Amino acid sequence: MPVDIAVVHGARTPIGRYKGALSSAPAHRLGALVIHEAVARGGLDLGAVDEVVLGCVGQVGPDAFNARRACLAAGLPVTTTAYNVNRLCGSGLQAVWSAAQSLTLGEADVVVAGGNESMTRQPLLDYRERARDEVPGEPIVDGTISLVTDPFGGYPMGMTGEVVADRYHISRQRQDRWAAESQRRVAVAVDEGRFDEQIVPVATRDGVVERDEHPRPGTTVEKLTSLAPVFSENGTITAGNSAGINDGAAAVLLMRSADLVPGAAPLCRLRDAVVTALEPEIMGVAPAEAIRTLLRRNGLTPDAIDVIELNEAFAAQVLAVMDGLKLDPDRVNPNGGAIALGHPVGATGTVLLLKAAYELRRTGGRLGVVALCIGGGQGIAALIENPGGTR
Q: Could you tell me which residue ranges the Thiolase N-terminal domain spans (predicted)?
């Protein structure tokens, strides 16, 4: 459904490593910070926001109240409604799209949407049922591991990367080359300050976190080649060519473009979004069909897109999607991706939206696509436009 929604402004936290700099910060506190910052950057009062929509995958216990907790912690009035979205890795982008749908239908006038996740702080899960005392197998499960486990195959999500690498003939060498390039591009972006404007610092009990923690500058193909496969003895997926387990949050302020003050220039405009699905074991290639459908519906070809932010769950799936759509590698993740930056699952979709919007503004490009694979066999893709683009 094509729309015309203004992404007025937005912000993200730095992305923290697993058990790293943001590990002491609950997810709702990270969410509150970016909600408040997105509204402030948009020049609105907190009371102007009608609703908050947040993507979050870990929603156990008090985190079931995640969006509402973040909303109130951000200082929004108690009359502001809020709800969680869980489309797994696509949650942060789905939250933005759900907000856009509400705006298009006239159900709200101003919405803050985004995502927040603390993968570090997931609880241990006790699968013993109240109705009976015993269950077969080990009842205690690591909540973080459960977020990255495919319930259909009963294996770590990395095994879907192995399936994709095998089925689409993506070699270990190509994967490591892409991973090294992702690290290189992020290092350049950091050195040139390209992420600085996107990031709002996070004050923790251990100090203020101002920069992404996950990148490893100086990573080379040679170093990556030395890493052992993680999921299969003869496999190709390693810790070095996969996304990390991370903490972080991002949010954007949304309005109908027609409601903007005349002459106001939003960060970007959201034009459309698509969700598609296929077999769970090849979930990594699902963005290909989502992007294909999105472009077809809007009368576009890949050559018309200036920036493509494609989430790097695994280098293998990124390369398979690029091969399938014949994408220009220079336009895909020009400032690096999740292999280097990390992947706080509920937030990543909004992080990528911000990256694409800022890159379009920096380069003068007009159109961008944001896409993510989703565990369970889904893909999501969104089309954005830079109103000041000249291409």
A: 5-257
